[in-house]
């Protein structure tokens, strides 16, 4: 009879898991694989009762491995509820969580960035009065004054915070940590959670997308502090009442997007590029131009011409939301 060392088996499963995820990601269907394997070997858990928590800080990097010295795969924003698939300590003894974000994306995040929910605790900002941030970035202060102290933290556009009483310019928010702070209500919209964002017209989507012009490119970025191509269009679509997945190659093949013949592109459509397969995405703003976060010429959000030779050589296709 073969006896497996529990630590060895756990490590083997982890690397098998990651290897399969990379393989399936290249095939465009990795999204549920990691959590499926985890649940398979942990039959007492389900997707519904996985440990979960909330992101504490403005923008937190998600890494390919439990280390800040490796590549960033995505980012999680303040107030986001995440599922915890695995826990691991690094060489220094710091805790890392392998998490799943609401869009089913996976990555490693530092434990200090997460507050674990207590049993039976409702998800942060999931009910009651909230403020959805509509400014590119909103600052939260310890008191209702912008001159007397530095901000406690910052909340990027699309994030949702719990808010209590508000009067005039200021509202009192409860941060995911439980700390109280003050926000200028002009930085967002007061809503009752849960809420659904209205679907914007193509013209409204273009106006929204142009607000990000000139912001820096950052691989794995999902906020105005820095955006990558797929993180940018995912954010624009989310704010427009449309949910799409995280990476360009997955967006290209996901359900809910219709194939558009070449030459029939229009505002709001997603256009995809790549030398071999899909590696870049942008959003059309009219019949000839598209907006994208790119390192081409300058590492910023910028407008490109679909019919420029550079883009035509690597054009892969167009998709339109139903």
Structure description:
A seven-stranded antiparallel sheet has the order 10-9-13-12-11-8-14, with no helix packed on it. It has a six-stranded antiparallel sheet with strand order 17-22-18-19-20-21. The protein has a five-stranded antiparallel sheet with strand order 6-5-4-1-7. It has 322 residues and is α+β, with helices and mostly antiparallel strands. It has three domains: 6-116, SH3 Domains (SH3 type barrels, Roll); 128-193, SH3 Domains (SH3 type barrels); 202-321, endopeptidase fold (from Nostoc punctiforme), CATH 3.90.1720. It is globular. Strand 11 and strand 12 form a beta hairpin. Helix 1 packs antiparallel against helix 2 (33-40). The protein has helices at residues 6-27, 33-40, 202-210, 229-239, 248-253, 309-314, and strands at 52-55, 59-63, 72-77, 81-89, 95-100, 106-110, 114-116, 128-133, 137-141, 153-156, 160-167, 170-174, 180-184, 188-193, 222-223, 226-227, 257-260, 270-273, 280-284, 289-294, 300-305, 315-321.
Describe the protein's topology:
Blueprint: H1 6-27, H2 33-40, E1 52-55, E2 59-63, E3 72-77, E4 81-89, E5 95-100, E6 106-110, E7 114-116, E8 128-133, E9 137-141, E10 153-156, E11 160-167, E12 170-174, E13 180-184, E14 188-193, H3 202-210, E15 222-223, E16 226-227, H4 229-239, H5 248-253, E17 257-260, E18 270-273, E19 280-284, E20 289-294, E21 300-305, H6 309-314, E22 315-321
Antiparallel strand pairs: 1-4, 1-7, 2-3, 4-5, 5-6, 8-11, 8-14, 9-10, 9-13, 11-12, 12-13, 15-16, 17-22, 18-19, 18-22, 19-20, 20-21
